[in-house]
Write a structure and sequence with these properties.
Length: about 775
């Protein structure tokens, strides 16, 4: 079985509204002006209803549609409001969030529908990030599957569960590119690559919104945080960003564009400033790019108080100015800050905000509500709410997703054969570490309604597999804290066992996700000490890392024979891990972020620019001694390369790659005119292929990747850029020719004339197992 994702394939999906699947490139060329057949908010049939309702509304009622509050558990500073009932009855609230039962949503909805003058329903939102009740791996783990169809299915499950409670809007997917592991929100996204990030963005949107947004089990997606939030300086959450237009266009915007093309009904504006202008008051990104260039018709929601925060940014000195600037820049709805409620009507009356802009923003919100079918079906079905949750097929999908999210980083002979998979049969296992039996952490940092009791912990699954009598479980130390006695107990238990499994890492809730930037990326607390003491027993050790980011663990990678990155795997953490450790499932996940050796390398990403003094010929393993080793772009005390590159991940079998073959050595730039948006072309102009052989004795799945480099461009381009990937299943000994069809946009860049274009350049193409390997093939693009 082969599943293909190339620039061309992703586009076919976007335009045809088909689920991601085995698409090949070469579909008919689609021009930029062709409007994709999109339903939901793009259904012009809704406009008559919207206009009829809008025509009846007062200014205050229109403004009311632009106001959103958190009525449940706050996830940030609150407004202190408690008067929602009264405001709803007066038509002053358009949306509420953080309520999560059908009973509660229905109670608020009854007020809106029965008491407000125009009976306009409320749209209820929630952060349904990687599952609602059925928790899947965190988004970084889901992306590590490199399996968009699976992610789409996971999002569909989340949509069907959330919608059963009346939640018809999720603040997901987070499509921020994350190049810095210090940033805790790396856990919530798809990593560092815009191509993979775009494929994942489309998959989530299709999954949440389904084939019809007005189906009872669909929810509106919200691609966030627009834009550049992941570029926070120093990896410190909420920090400012400086992003050139070139990097914005080529790196940070593409996943949002993919989400918009997939039909995302809403977009959330970010907290950060971009080149000094707050993203939640930025006319360039919100109006020029999003509305004018991309034709986005949906709702732009602010992030939590991000309109108010423009005062702290320093671009407004009072609430009225903050509201005016954000609104005129293109933010339709105000999440929590209440400034639209307080000021917008007065700003219209004083002539500072045109009435037409209010009409347009209200129109977008109403269109969303009509598109969701809320007017016909405003209430959740309380009697059937529970049936939607934790269905057997959802749980089984959660296990598959968890298995595919695991990335095997190291698996060395200990002493003669690789330590994993563990031998079947009876052997005593010591299971040590604070995350071995920590159900809440398995749920991840943002677990919707996920409950610890739904989790099958690693300890529980392992005990079932090997039998309690063969399992010695000790915590060792906590994620933080721990005593000398705890350490001694762990060593004691390791000594008694044939194999030691260490479950170490971060606390999901406190150390990953929002507001959890870290300046140190090692194991927290005394876990490193625990690791070293256990390894010193000489027993074979398998290290399972639970984290929302790569951790800098050079000692572990030198001394531990087997290391598995498990992220936070969700409710099926235990079964997925046990099946993988014992070889019933063969790891196939690959890294979606470059794994650093040390924090000083951050931000670290494979698709970097070269410099005038690249260090590729220097010996970086020791401090420079000669001029040739010294005056190059390097550290004197660390290598430039990551510990493990983007795209990397081992299997229990091995794969051999043949050479990269191209169907032509030359293309003409004049025949490759890139589309203005740089992503929307489906015409195949190059096919590239390589033979991949399973050289081991087990069946396995390999994610085959294609990268290109353009040289001789008007603006320097990355040393490599991902342009496609395919998941291929190979039986032992089987060879498959894997072919990629590339469209013109694979060769396009945001050039010195500020447009996407294909230039006459030299191209290098690699097909390989990750971003650092693969055989190169040369291609020339002639004028
Ligand atoms: C703040 C977060 O940045 C955002 O991702 C989330 O959707 C909102 N809070 C709502 O909870």
């Amino acid at each position: 079985m082969i599943r293909k994702f190339s620039a061309a394939a992703v586009l076919c999906i976007v335009l045809a509204w088909r689920p991601l699947g085995a698409q090949t490139g070469g579909a008919a060329s689609v021009s930029h002006s062709a409007v994709p057949a999109r339903t939901g908010i793009y259904d012009v049939g809704l406009d008559v209803k919207v206009e009829a309702l809008l025509g009846k509304m007062t200014l205050e009622e229109k403004v009311g549609q632009l106001v959103q509050y958190s009525a449940g558990q706050p996830t940030g500073p609150g407004t202190g409001r408690t008067d929602y009932n009264d405001m709803i009855a007066k038509g002053q609230i358009g949306a509420l969030f953080n309520i999560s039962t059908a009973k509660e949503t229905n109670a608020y909805q009854r007020l809106a529908v029965e008491k407000s003058r125009l009976h306009i329903p409320i749209v209820f939102g929630l952060d349904v990030i990687h599952g609602f009740r059925t928790e899947f791996p965190i988004p970084l783990g889901l992306a590590s599957t490199w399996d968009p169809p699976l992610v789409e299915k996971a999002a569909r499950v989340a949509a069907s569960e959330a919608s059963a409670t009346g939640i018809r809007w999720t603040f997901s997917p987070m499509v921020d590119i994350a190049r810095d592991a210090r940033w805790g929100r790396m856990a919530e996204g798809a990593g560092e690559d815009p191509f993979l990030g775009s494929a994942m963005a489309s998959a989530y949107v299709h999954g949440y919104q389904g084939s019809r947004l007005d189906a009872a089990d669909s929810v509106a997606a919200c691609a966030k945080h627009f834009v550049g939030y992941g570029a926070a300086e120093g990896g410190r959450d909420y920090n400012s960003t400086e992003i050139s237009e070139h990097t914005l266009r080529q790196v940070y915007l593409p996943p949002f564009h993919a989400a918009v093309n997939a039909g995302s009904a809403t977009i959330m504006s970010a907290f950060n400033s971009i080149n000094g202008v707050p993203a939640s008051a930025n006319p360039f990104t919100l109006t020029q790019v999003l509305r004018k260039e991309w034709g986005f018709r949906g709702v732009v929601d602010s992030d939590w108080t991000s309109i108010l925060e423009t005062i702290a940014h320093g671009t407004a000195n009072d609430g009225a100015t903050a509201a005016r600037k954000s609104f005129l820049a293109g933010v339709d709805m105000d999440m929590v800050s209440s400034l639209y409620h307080d000021h917008l009507a007065a700003l219209v009356r004083s002539g500072q905000v045109p009435q037409a802009n209010i009409d347009e923003a209200a129109r977008r919100v109403l269109r969303l509500k009509f598109a969701l079918g809320l007017f016909e079906r405003p209430y959740a079905d309380e009697a059937h709410e529970a049936e939607a949750m934790l269905r057997p097929e959802s749980i089984s999908l959660a296990r598959t997703a968890a298995e595919r999210s695991l990335v095997l980083l190291k698996n060395e002979p200990a002493p003669d054969t690789p330590i994993l998979p563990l031998a079947g049969g009876v052997q005593d296992i010591a299971l040590i570490g604070p995350l071995a039996d920590d159900p809440p952490s398995m749920l991840g940092s943002w677990a919707g309604l996920g409950r610890a009791e739904d989790v099958v912990s690693f300890h529980a699954a392992l005990a079932k597999h090997v039998g309690e009598q063969h399992l010695f479980q000790v915590k060792g130390v906590g994620i933080t804290g721990g005593t000398d006695e705890d350490l001694a107990a762990a060593v004691e238990s390791a000594r008694k066992a044939a194999v030691v499994i260490l479950a170490l890492g971060e606390h999901a809730g406190e150390m990953t996700g929002e507001a959890t930037s870290r300046a140190h990326l090692g194991l927290p607390g005394r876990q490193q000490e625990l690791l070293e003491k256990v390894v010193a027993t000489g027993k074979p050790v398998v290290l399972i890392l639970f984290s929302g980011r790569p951790l800098t663990l050079p000692w572990a990678f030198d001394h531990v024979p087997a290391v598995l990155a498990a992220w936070f795997p969700g409710i099926q953490a235990g079964p997925a891990l046990v099946r993988t450790l014992y070889g019933e499932s063969n790891p196939s996940g690959k890294l979606v972020v470059s794994w650093p050796r040390s924090v000083g390398q951050e931000p670290l990403y494979y698709n970097a620019l070269s410099t005038g003094r690249p260090a590729d010929k220097a010996d970086l393993s020791k401090p420079p001694s000669t001029g040739a080793d010294k005056y190059v772009s390097r550290y004197i005390d660390e290598q430039n390369s990551p510990q493990f590159p983007f795209g990397y991940g081992l299997s229990y079998t091995t794969f051999r790659y043949g050479g990269t073959e191209l169907n032509t050595k030359q293309l003409k730039a004049s025949t490759l005119q890139a589309e203005p948006d740089g992503v929307s072309q489906s015409r195949t102009v190059l096919t590239a292929s390589a033979e991949v052989t399973n050289t081991g004795s087990r069946a396995g799945e390999e994610v085959v990747q294609i990268y290109v480099r353009l040289q001789g461009t008007s603006v320097a381009q990355p040393v490599r850029s991902l342009k496609g990937f395919q998941r291929v299943s190979l039986a032992p000994g089987e060879t498959r020719k894997v072919t990629f069809a590339l469209a013109p946009d694979a060769f396009a860049l945001w050039n010195d004339g500020n447009q996407f274009a294909v230039e006459p350049v030299k191209v290098t193409v690699w097909i390989g197992p990750d971003s650092a390997h693969g055989a190169a093939a040369a291609l020339e693009i002639l004028p």
